[in-house]
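Please predict the structure of the following assembly.
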Amino acid sequence: MPNAATIRLFHSFRARPENWLIVVLLAVCAALSVVAPSFLTLSNLVDLLEGYSVQAIMAMGVFVVLIAGGIDISFAAVASVAQYVAAMLATQFGLPAIVVLPAGLFIGVLLGCINATLIHYARVTSIIITIATMNTYFAFLMFFTGGHSIYNLPDWWSDRVVLFQTTAPNGDLIRITLPILVMVLAIVLTWLLLNRTKAGRQLYAMGGNPESARRIGISIAKMHYLAYGFLGFMAALAGLVQAHRVGESVPNALYGSELSVLSAAVLGGASLSGGVGTVGGVVIGILLLAVIQNGLNLIGISPYCFSIITGAVIVISTSLTVMSARGRRRSRAIDLEAPTRG
Amino acid sequence: MTVPTHFGLDTLMKQLTRGIPGKLPGLSIVLIILLVTFSIGIPGFLSIGTLRSMMFQLPELALLAMAMALPMISGGLNLAIIATANACGLVMVVVMSALIPAGASGSAVMLGVAVGLAAGLAVGLAVGAATGLLIARTGVHPILITLGVQSMVEGTSVLLTQGKVVSGLPSAYGAVGNSLVFGIPLTFIIMAIAALVIGVLLKRTAFGIALAMTGSNAEATRYSSINVGRVLIKVYALSGILCFLAACLMLARFNSASSAYAKSYLLVTVLAAVLGGVDPFGGFGKVGGIILALGVLQVISSGCNLLGFSEYLTLGIWGVTLIAVMGVQSIGTRSSR
């Protein structure tokens, strides 16, 4: 029965929305490697990874909040505050890395926990409260710093760390740098949290249905603190990595990247209503946006076009995902789906 | 007939809140406290000059906040409002400067301005209706669709203008736009008329009721034989028209258009709408409340300005006020249930 097997394969393929993204990603990669020969080189791909490491780290935190059924807009402001405070400690007080880095991460967790407190105890919707805290954190950061950047970061922070270096046959230098390692660790940590711990499964449960989660004995307060605190941690980490990459701390450097990170997470299959999505999907979402931008750059299309194409990709891919989910329900209703158990 | 179970302070509060727009006692009290504090703290705060400057600053944000609030009542959100308004502004400037030669006579200028305004309106309407159509047809969350539309509209504006500021408005436009009618700024009158129209639309028309029902429960509304898709298209188109009006006022104020104006207003409009009692989950919201909320924000900003606070400190104070008011409101509604 080759026909039934094909149908079964097709349905199991459709069951996961990120499979569509993989197809789109592969198609885009194939098209780009034909049009721009320099795209499919190892050095370009590695550079691409490093360029999107900061966004990817933040997207992991955002993803955990989305899984928990919330949304957070304030993470870029949190990252800026954590980065700036750490930079102040390092330059003004000359503290060593062992103090500065934990302090920066602590600030991130603290600001995330403020969000969690407001969401849990004041019961204001997460999107509203985080828009408010975003404005507040950023405004006070700009007020207290006067918008001045810190350029004289210590060497241990701003020096490039190359973990692995090799030369490609065509003479290109390939470097695996610290941001890539941190990004991979962040992705692994998020995956472990969501898939290998009890708290992670509880986050999925709460995102799916908070009332049932509460009734089976999950502490909603703890879950809120976990999700927003984790995002605060990831945001601070991203802030520290960003300062490492550019070698300075600019208060408004990360501000304004909220919506693009959010769209990368959602593009990868995380649902805005919570409880749905995989880490792999988010990674593919980021890769897709990164590859499209990089490819357009290599082809020589004006950077002014990027946001048009990014917008179109978001609208088209999310529409396809939702509509294919609707089609899947329909095909199940008329019993097209081959029974898998038997 | 309900039997009053609470006496004393509760009844008094109910009496007090009856006549207040939006029935938001917290917000009205905040407004009164702010007014009293500032007029004691700053000599000359309660003057015609301050009032007039507030009337000049308020309308833009008010129109944008309404453009945000209407989709919120339908259970959505429109993140494309600023991009739409800027696109309308750019189109208007380009059309007007192309149609009106340097030494044009009065009637030629009138015609040029009229065609320009029509073009701007067409852009606002088209972007809004297209957004509504996408949301109605695909069923994707409005945050995502409007995010995509925002990026596309803004990208197109940036691409066509290379990110530059475009000027070349006829001087008559700015003169009329910044004029006073009986001592009240024309822009404020435009905003008041728009607010009145939207208020009546929400409360007294079938569309307004269908809108609130869609926001409360789209599925139930569909089963009560209301075309939910059409309601959504209409509400986003209306949001686009309000963006066009905001663009008209922005042109008068800046005397130019750009793809980057008023970007920081985007998320502030969400807060203003929520502060004004619009339910972020949809279904509820009144124009009176939004205007009251904007009044509070405007008084804070004017007061901080007179005190010589920096722009960022003002923004920070806005944020803290918003968080405090929303927290108190939500704890208040929870305990009264």
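Residues 1-7, 15-22 of chain B have pLDDT under 50 and may be disordered. Chain B touches chain A through 46 residues (CB under 8 Å).
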